[in-house]
Amino acid sequence: MSTNQSNKTLAAVEGGAIRKYQILVVGNTRLGYLIKFELITLLCGWVPGALGLALRRIFYPRLFKSVGKGVVFGANLTLRHPEKISLGDNVVLDDNCLIDAKGESNRGITIGNDVFVGRNTILSCKNGDIILEDRVNIGFNSEIFSSGTVRLGADTLIAAYVYIVGGEGYDLRLTDLPIAKQPVYDYGTSVTIGAGAWIGAKAVILNNLTLGQGCVVGAGAVVTRAVPDNTIVGGIPAKVLGERKP
Question: Of 107-111, 167-171, 236-240, which range is least confident?
Answer without folding.
Answer: 167-171
